[in-house]
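Predict the 3D structure for this chain.
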Amino acid sequence: MKIPRSLRHLLAAATFLTLAVPMRAAEPVLKLKDNDVWVMAGDSITAQRQHTNYIEAYYHTRFPNLNLHFRNSGIGGNTTGSVLARFDYDVAAWKPTIVSIELGMNDVGAGDDPAKYIKGMRELIGKIRAIPAQPVLISSSPVDDGSKLNDWKSDRCRRIHPYTEALKALAAEEKIVFVDQYHPLLDLWGDNRRKGEAEAVKKGAWPPKPTPAPVVDPAKPVRPAAPPIPPSLIPLTGDPVHPGPVGQFTMAATILNALGAEREVSSATLKADGTVVSATHCKITDASAKDGKLAFTRLDESGPWPILPAAKTSAQLLPTVLDLSRYILKVDGLPVGKYRVSIEGKPAATLDAAELAAGWNITSAFDGAVGERATKILASIGNLQGKLNNEWRAASKEKNAEKLAEAQKAIDAADAEIRTASAPVAWHFEIEKETK
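Done. Predicted structure below.
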């Protein structure tokens, strides 16, 4: 009997726990189940509704048979104290089964000692468990200012290090799922800045030319200007604290990787003559090879991770982005040469025979049908997490039952739209050799 994907990750976790060494306690895990409600609480980085939306898109497309609900609860400038103050109407009111807390960027303003931060986190853990829901602790992202461990470019970025270490210790003590995105991204983004600076120096574009000092009133204190930040090799877009889509996809991938997210989508192998060799978690129909063209229709049990075309360089910066979406096509026996691949009649890629034989990750076809689908899914999520989400939260804060019921109705409709957009679709593929 074939086991549905929605159950496989639960059975795998159960098997692991059964076979684990008895003397060693199992690591806390996060495994989503049908009808879960995940509230993502945080500061302005969460309120950007980027990496949180990308994580949501991953789960909707990877487990389309699960009825999952995600709710954004981010507010700019928030600290642990801020979230505690609004917890009842902006977190608990959603009736979540999972609550992730992603804070620290503003908390570090209290200084080098993370004691206040940890005290607030401990209180939040207690409130989350009392709902009851599963707490998940996520460290702050770093400041993208070129800092690396022990080579800090700002106090703000430096302080997030001990705060993250203290949060990790708290999670271990409380036996809670913990995600450290700070340290992996500190290395990744720091190296990216250094490579960008080196390229800029080669081109004579760095360091910037000095400018005349402005005339100031000696009676008024002047805050010294922050040193300029060198360019990145691959721009994250956004600003050093609030990355744009490229940076936020690396954040989402780092978080999903730490959560042990499933990587496999599906795979299919065909021969050049149209023979279907294998199809794992997908169905291949109408396969044919004639007039130099290989064609077939593919229907998958789940979909690839939706990656915005505008953020495709995130996969270049962090290969884990694509590795979290192994959506594979192999074609054996093609004559040597270059081949045009189209999906739904739209160009997807140009690959050589060796690349197709080795296996092509279709997720990397960021444009065309794959990119359009990704854009549509993320637009549906953005519709819910933006205006509709804010209207619900405002009604909850006001304790206005009528407005809350109306807002909930709109959110339920948006949830249904997301599920429809995320459902697997049959795609028609054509592979044809390039001719000069």
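Residues 368-398 form the longest helix (31 residues).
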